[in-house]
Amino acid sequence: MNDPAPPPSGPLAGVRVLELGHFIAAPFCTRLLADLGAEVIKVEPPGGDPVRQWGRQVEGGGAPWWSMHARNKQSLVLNLKHPKAVGIVLDLVKGCDALVENYRPGQLARMGLTRARLDAARPGLVVAHVSGYGQDGIYRDRAAFGVIGEAIGGLRYLTNHPPEASDLPPVRVGVSIGDSIAGLYAAFGVAAALFARDRRGGDGRGRTLDVALTESVLSMMEGMLPEYGAFGTVRHPTGSRIATAAPSNAYPTADGAWILIGGNSDPIFERLTALMGRPELAADPRFRGNALRVRNVEALDALIGAWSAGYAARDLDRMLAEADVPATIAYTAAEIAADPQFRARGMVREVEDPAFGTVLHAGIVPHVPDDPGAIRWPGPGPGAHTDAILRDALGLSPGAIAALRNEGVVA
């Protein structure tokens, strides 16, 4: 593969990050950094990152998710079990601002990449460790994936119907949200650490970031823990409702779809009841004010559901928008891909990928209008940039690179 182009743009242009990550959390972190302009060198094992094979696959190309998951990154296939690999990593670190990894705690040091050796190679290096339970504590050595973080962080228990409504196990969110949240926190931490190091009057020091999947999920759990501490109450699953606001639920439609309606403020509730042809409901003693609507939510949802069931989802969506009531159908991938708002803001983009043809990618978040990042290239093939990285970053000759390849150090 030729050297990638165009050059980086975005607020992190000029930052170089080394990724020693696999699966989701660390690679998600570095994808966010790369989207905003950072140069990311992804170290992959021989055979490539396992995510290349996750999901429905194209013969000979792997999984289309890879196209977005690894976009804007350079791929270096390096056998980290080879004795010479550590030296190559340390040489790469000399030109990097940050290193992101998600091995088990202590694994980096066991490989010979201690903090002391990393600092010696690159004073001021920011190192982000992403793990299941964190780098210390009594659980640090327990195996964990994102789903474990979601469970111990409190999310999995709440993603369910109320206990009295179902005896099925708590459902998965549908994506690896625990990994992605941890990756998001790691990206935020890297940016914050680089700011502290490099800002005017900055101290020039590197930082070590310790990001746990479990803690990342827990930090997103709103008032669950404060309410338990203050009142001793345990928050329970509420299905599709919001326990503290009404109406706010998913309601049936005539064509078998669902529409979500948030009518929990008094003015919005009045507009909703007017649209329903039931303006008297806004003055009904059961529904005057949010607290009473929550108390009588079963009766209220039954009334709204009976009304919504008389219309097709698309018609309801239009009617509610015209009435200025927050609402939407529950989007599938098809609705997302066709949505004009997503298209207008570049959140659904068509990207040409040699392995898959035209692939749809989610856009870049956050949007920085005056210095936007870019999708410079899709997820590359394994080792697509190995020679270029060894040549340009380490100054190795073609003969030296060939020798490393013959020894099984790189591929």
UniProtKB/TrEMBL annotation:
Q: Does the keyword Ligase apply?
A: no
Alphabetically sorted, this entry's keywords are: Transferase
Recorded hits in InterPro entries, A to Z, give:
CoA-transferase_III_domain, CoA-Trfase_fam_III, CoA-Trfase_III_dom3_sf, CoA-Trfase_III_dom_1_sf
Matching Gene3D superfamilies, A to Z? Crotonobetainyl-coa:carnitine coa-transferase, domain 1, formyl-coa transferase, domain 3
**This protein's name:** Succinyl-CoA--L-malate CoA-transferase beta subunit
Q: Which organism is it from?
A: Methylobacterium crusticola
